[in-house]
Every structure is written in structure tokens, then in C-alpha cells.
Amino acid sequence: MQKEIHIPENPVSRFLFSSTRAGLIWLVIRLYLGYAWITAGWKKVTSPAWTGDNAGSALQSFVKGALAKAESGKDVTGWYAGFLESFVLPNAKIFAYMVAFGELLVGLGLILGLLTGIAAFFGAIMNVSFLFAGTLSTNPLLFILATWLVLAWKNAGWYGLDRWALPLLGTPWGGKASHKTHTTRVD
Known about the structure:
The longest helix is centred in the first third of the chain and has 23 residues, at 23-45. The protein has eight helices and no strands. It has helices at residues 11-18, 23-45, 57-71, 78-88, 92-112, 116-132, 139-151, 162-168. It has a domain at 57-179.
């Protein structure tokens, strides 16, 4: 039977992804991303073309623009165009609500520091979806920052509600396991 080998974490990643002091760095990134998401979501939630009388019409226009890019052989791959055409377009109203309220919830989660890693993950999923649809804008930057927040899930919300919410969920600061040190052992 092979014994488990513990590989020590390098000091930079230990600081960035496990130190509460790095939480201040993540706070700045969280607030920037949260503001970007909450403002985008609020515009959509209050727009009749997204969630009002004409719900879904803005998304239909967006999808049709992406499909036009796919037809001209630019910026949108065939498989994603197929997904947009056969699944998103017929369900544009539902997807419009999901996008509008999803953006708002991601923004709130990031600003409040509540379930930060999960909020950042769903924000990154939306960024990738927009990128696949051929929309650059700020999506690459937001995707990179969201990915970093996902990696820093343990301490990114330390200066936020995660400081209390995550221990209630059983992770990562509760009990003796959080004070355990790992040593390198090779047998």
C-alpha cells in the first residue's frame, strides 16, 4: 500500500489562497467584479427587453448577432452557434431572466463576500458564454479575475460574509483541521 505524500505549498500561493491578510487584495478584486456584475444585472433587470413586457427580445438580438458572426466564419465556433440556435434562441425569455438575475446575484455575492467562490464561478461561466458568442468587451479581464477568486475561495470572502458563512457550512476554518500543519514526508 502506497503512503500519501504531502507536497508543501509555495509561500506565494499559500499567501494568496490561504492567508487572511491576502483577503484585502481579494476584497478590491471582489468589489470591482461585483460592481461590474451588479450594474450590468441591474440594467437588464430593469429593462423591458430583458425582463419586462418584451422579455427575451434583447437576448434574441444578441444571439442573432452571434449567429451572423458564425455564418461569416468569424468569432463564433459552429458548435456554440448550434447551441445558441437550437437551445437558447427558442428559450430566449427564460435565458434572459437567467442572465439578468444571474448577473445581479453574482454581483451581490461578490460585493457581500457571500459564497464568493461560487459567485465567481458562475460569473466566469457567463463571461465564457459571452466570449464564445463573440463578445470581447471586458469579458477576458472579468474571466481572469473571476478565475482567481474561484482559486481563492477560502480567503477571498474573509472581509465579507464568508468569514461567518463558510464555517457554518463546515469549511474551511472550523475545528482543529484548520490549525494543522503539513510536512513533507517521503517514504
